[in-house]
Amino acid sequence: MVRPEYLYHYYELENGPFRNITEQGIEKALAIQSNISQGFNSKRPPNYIELRFSLEARLKKQFISKGGKPNRDDPFYFMLGECEWAKSWYVNPGVVKTSVCF
User: Roughly what angle, to the nearest 10 degrees, separates helices 48-65 and 26-34?
Assistant: First the structure.
């Protein structure tokens, strides 16, 4: 297996990188999601926001249980290697590419 050399963070250019739909609370996230009408992100199931909050809380709890000390409540998401499909999530995609340290 070839190890990817880079992590990729995809985002909507209009909004900028390192944003998370959950960073401003559930009510704002629900409003944001209801206003997305184009791209793959517009096709999320009705319970997507509630599910995402639940999964992010679980991730944080598990990270802490392993000795992690998060400095924020919501995570940033990256792909291990380039992912053309992830670009389709956005109408006007941007990407941050950073090297992986193993």
Answer: 140
- CB burial of 26-60 (b: ≥16 within 10 Å; e: otherwise) equals eeebeebbeebeeeebeeeeeeebeebbeeeeeeb
In this structure, the dihedral spanned by the alpha carbons of residues 57, 58, 63 and 66, taken in order and rounded to 10 degrees, is: 140
Q: What is the pLDDT of residues 35-79, one digit of tens each?
A: 888 777 778 888 999 999 999 999 999 999 999 999 998 999 999
Contact of 7 with 80, CB cutoff 8 Å: yes
Enumerate the domain spans of the chain: 1-18+76-102, 19-74
Query: Any idea of the CA torsion for 6, 16, 91, 52, to the nearest 10 degrees?
Result: 80
DSSP SS3 for 57: helix
